[in-house]
Amino acid sequence: MRIVQLANFYGPRSGGLRTALHHLGAGYAAAGHEVTLVVPGAAYADERLDRATSSGDACSGDAGSRPVRRITLPAPRIPGTGGYRAVDPWRVRALLEHLRPDRLEVSDRLTLRGMGRWAAARRVPSVVISHERLDRLLEQFLLPAAWARRGADWANARMAASYDTVVCTTDFAREEFDRIGARNVTRVPLGVDLTTFTPRRHDRALKADLARGADALLVHCGRLSPEKHVERSIDTAAELHAAGHRVRLVIAGDGPRREWLERRASGLPVTFLGFVGRRTDVANLLATADVSLAPGPHETFGLAALEALASGTPVVVSASSALREIVRPGCGAAVADHAPAFAGAVSELLDNPEPTRRSAARARAEEYPWQAAVDGMLTALRAA
User: Has this prediction a pTM greater than 0.70?
Assistant: First the structure.
């Protein structure tokens, strides 16, 4: 098959979306398919991703597989997003006419939502991956819950009707499509790189350097944007510090809320590392931490949390997010959306023997290999 993957909001610092696209594309290529990834950028580029990119994501499959082709289309920056870009759909449609795909996979349900109609008009089977909950996004913009739900239902019904298949990565992500009775929805969980993210990367010297005398090292890894609720991780560190626990929180990531978050963390045992570009450095950090925090209530999968589990580090997550489906007792905790609940869960996890909690975290992550995600997506693409 000639598979074209489309995505906006993709860039050198786009985290989970970039990781998912690269691993899925590499898996398709390893299975013998011709894969082209189309993304926005500062300037036009056409390259072959036959080796690791600068971000450290593996973009090739087996030695004999075809390389993934990545075409970057010029696109303007979107104000207030910390550098994200969105290419004009007209440019995408013009390129698709040239690429002539056998299958179209879209990872953008907002700015590229019309690509389903383009595919239908040309009888190209199409799949859209729902990487976010639209009703939650609308609530994030301070819409009343009832209005957000009605708006999401209207938009989701139109989108589902324009694609052959809607792929959701969790039951949480699927809920808003089940609510409107969409019948072309399937569930395909994403995966985690079990080789790069491993407990073997635990580094005592790195922990001593980062902890600065603290007994426990906490980590928050992700984009510093409003929907991630990074302030809850800071407030968790404040709760633990006030209760007499010697902890230090390390925040890896950058984004539009960094200055505000730094002011909130003033005087607390919190360190901001900024964007960590190399995947191996992220893996070292996650494996070295004692507990990872993922307080975002809108996560539809949560790759950063799964990478922490693969690194042998338990995770405390928002019970309002899809991560409640992934994080189980023993390898972490899903709790209410306030700092005291997160602090209590962290304290309980630290009371467990370290080998026990680390082995439980790794065992849970091993249930999510990338190959299973690739197989599931290829099944969806073929069925479409």
Answer: yes
